[in-house]
Structure formats: structure tokens, C-alpha cells
Write a structure and sequence with these properties.
By secondary structure, the chain is mostly helical. It has one domain: Winged helix-like DNA-binding domain superfamily/Winged helix DNA-binding domain (Arc Repressor Mutant, subunit A). Helix content is 57%, strand content 9%. A three-stranded antiparallel β-sheet has the order 1-3-2. The radius of gyration is 18 Å and the shape is elongated. The N and C termini lie far apart (37 Å).
């Protein structure tokens, strides 16, 4: 499993892990039912604290992207379409915030659209 972490980035490592999993699930690189590394294994591979991986896994599980099965491991959920829905909703929210900020600087929606092309 290839998880890319930028240790120099200001974004917390657990958020980078969540985004990497979301991306790989959305692109189909991690299919439904695929077993992912244990918290300790991934932490060791990345050279980070297991609590950081645990936090990322908790978020992924809360979002319905992974499922933990006691004594069997952690797997990609059957509901991977949820990853796309969550990511699209996040991006739309960010886009709306950016549009509002640009409007606060006096741009109209038409001017914003024109600048985006």
C-alpha cells in the first residue's frame, strides 16, 4: 500500500492519511473488501505514532469508508460511493466559501466565472 505523507506540510499527518485513503478508494485502487494494514503496521511503515494512524482510521470508519472486524482486520467498506459523495460535498463547500470571499472583494459571479476560464 502506497500512502504518501509530506512531513513538511502544515496539514496534520492524520488528515493526509485520510485524504490518501479517500483518493485511493475513489480511484478504485482500494476495492471493496480489500484488507488494509493494521494500525501498528501502517504506523511502522510510515514511521509515525500509532495514535496518528488510529485517529485517521477512526475518521475513515466514522465516514463509512472502512469497517473493522474484530480479530479479522480492517477492510474497505462495501459503500465506497460514499467517499465520492463526501469529497464532492467538501469541495463544493470550499468552492462556495471561495466564491463568497471573492464577492466580498467586489467581484460578481460573472466576473468570477470569467476569471476561472
Amino acid at each position: 500500500m502506497n500512502i504518501n505523507i509530506d512531513y513538511a506540510k502544515r496539514e496534520p499527518i492524520y488528515e493526509q492519511i485520510v485524504k490518501e485513503f479517500e483518493k485511493q478508494i475513489t480511484l478504485g485502487l482500494l476495492p471493496k473488501g480489500h484488507q488494509i494494514p493494521s494500525v501498528r503496521t501502517l504506523a511502522f511503515d510510515l514511521g509515525i505514532n500509532p495514535n496518528t494512524v488510529k485517529k485517521a482510521y477512526d475518521i475513515l470508519e466514522e465516514n463509512g469508508l472502512i469497517i473493522s472486524k474484530s480479530t479479522k482486520g480492517t477492510f474497505i467498506s462495501d459503500n465506497i460511493n460514499k467517499a465520492k459523495e463526501i469529497k464532492i460535498a467538501e469541495l463544493v463547500d470550499k468552492l462556495n466559501e471561495t466564491i463568497k470571499e471573492l464577492e466580498n472583494y467586489g467581484l460578481t459571479k460573472e466576473e468570477i466565472i470569467k476569471k476561472m476560464k
